[in-house]
Amino acid sequence: MRDAAVIDMGSNSVRLLLVQAGRTEQFLETTRLGKGVEARRLQKEPMERTVQAVERFCALARSRGIGRVYAFATSAVRDAENRGELLALLRERCGLSVDVLSGEEEADLAYLGAADGARALVLDIGGGSTELVFGEGAVRQAVSLQAGAVRLRERFGQDRDGAQAFLDERFAAQRAAFAGAQGAPLLGIGGTITTLAAMEQRLDVYCEEKIDGFVLRAQDVRAWVDRLWDLPAPARAFPGLEPSRADIIAHGALILDRALAAFARGQVRASTADNLLGYLRLAQRRETEEGNPR
Fold first, then answer.
1. Which phi and psi (to 5°) does residue 149 adopt?
2. pLDDT digit string (tens) for 103-116?
3. Distance from C-alpha of 14 to C-alpha of 71, rounded to nearest angstrom
4. Is 148 helix (H, G, I), strand (E, B) or coil?
5. How far apart, in whole angstroms, are the C-alpha atoms of residue 280 and residue 294?
6. What pTM does this model have?
7. Strands 120-125 and 186-189, how do they pair?
8. I need a surface site. Which of 15, 59, 154, 274 has the fewest CB within 10 A?
9. How far apart are CA 252 and CA 242, in angstroms?
10. DSSP-assigned letter for residue 243
11. For residue 244, what are the CA distances in angstroms to 127, 240, 249?
């Protein structure tokens, strides 16, 4: 891959992928852009936090001598009636044209990043939505569900029974569509899954090498849901859990728990290769095909 930077504006955090001389680095800032996502409007303070994070990431890319910066946004932005305000701020202050992904595009990128053509079922749990995508060489089936960790917390609070019934209904509706994925490895991406992998290993310091490929068993995921659900966020002081994610980790874990149950899966393998890498792969392939590699 050619040197580049990719910025992902998600519902919970802004992430940066830097690729330089064949090496990759990732950075993250929690901005909670999807706060109030159920009202379908981006709020002023989260928008400002997001723009400031993007400004810092652009400055970091420039300081490394990287001139090409890609940027995309997912659930919180595509669902917001006032997304034009954020996009205008990013153009004005960062000089960025942001690609607002559809749910289907987000799912495709999850597969491209995590599986890159291999036969796999990919589960991407975000803040505003959850994507399921099955592919073997190319994407065969994909869906985006309005069931992310931030959205679930805002809709149900601590009503576990209500949240579980909501998730079970949505995952059950997808079982027939994804019947062809039977036997395919299940890969999990997104902050919920990488965080649970870090928590299960009691990692005091985030270590990509220990998280990528780590297998989370269904019974361990359920145990974390039971342990976390009624515990106040300030008391969720577990190794591997960043304080900024403490208030939504139980809801994200419940999404994973119900997905594993719905598809009768005993485990999921965490992957740190996700839609950031998928977006870069796709963008650079298209530029090469068009004869305009940058």
1. -65, -45
2. 889 999 999 999 99
3. 10
4. coil
5. 12
6. 0.90
7. parallel
8. 59
9. 14
10. G
11. 13, 12, 10
